[in-house]
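re: ur question from yesterday

yeah so i grabbed the chain u mentioned. its 313 aa long if i counted rite. heres the sequnce exactly as i have it in my notes:
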Amino acid sequence: MTSAAPDVIGHRAVVADAGARTRRREPQAPGVRAARLSTGWLGVVPLLAFAAVVLGLPVAAMAAGSITTTDDAGVASITAANFAASFDGPYLESLLGSVRLSVLTAFVATVVSLPIAYAVVTSRLRGLRDAVLSASGVIANFGGVPLAFAFVATLGNAGVLTGFFGLADRGWSLYNFWGLSLVYLYFLVPLMVLTLTPALDGLKPQWREAARNSRATGFQYWRHVAFPVLLPTLLSGFVLLFGSAFSAYATAAAMVGSSIPLVTVKIASALTGDVLVGQANIALALGMDMIIVAALVMGAQLLLQRRTSAWLS
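ran it thru and got these structure tokens back, copy pasting raw so excuse formatting
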């Protein structure tokens, strides 16, 4: 053992010296690095061009219109009155109404989806798991007028289940805040199940075994190990659901119209002049308010996803 030690040390020294010589290689010329960098950007150019046309131009036009007003003579001028109006009166009420609806539905969907996703992940029936995930992917993208019609036909005033169970006599109404919340949960819960499933798959079995070897109960394992690891994913999913509910329009417009104050419905009414004429610029200011909220939501989601990937890597 003693005679072999110098050979081992010498071999490690040779390997370290070779690695050092490799690291001391002359760097590439700046022109070569710049050429490779510019060539690499060519593959992103179509995507950037598409994003600039589809997203950049509408946002730029919206931003310009939100700070512009036109007098009776047709002369345009820059003003902040549109943004001031968007935070006052019925416009502010619609903005707060969308926030309340989005926060409530996102929170309920997050709480309900966690046990469903856990049951899917721990199920020994592979076919059942695939069926639930496939159905969740389809239902999460089912919305708009078809979803509104399905709920009206089922739970509306003359719906099948409403008449069968006599819900109308018990004060049930689909066309209020709680009814609309139920409709939103229909597509938010499957979306959250799809979001939580990979995170639950990332919980390593060694963590549970270590907790069991330390005589920790199941509640202690979830409280001190699993839940802290899943918390960034839960918050990220909540933010994602909030953004989905906040930006939804067609379902609410087809089912409740303007009876419930929502910012998306209010923007459509202002643009078309259903209530007041000449409110298009205020509608653009409301749209910019939504973009600011969406930007904050996306920023928070990116930060939470980075922390989630760091835990589950």
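noticed a couple things. The chain is about 75% helix and 0% strand. also The first strand starts at residue 68 and ends at 70.
anyway ttyl
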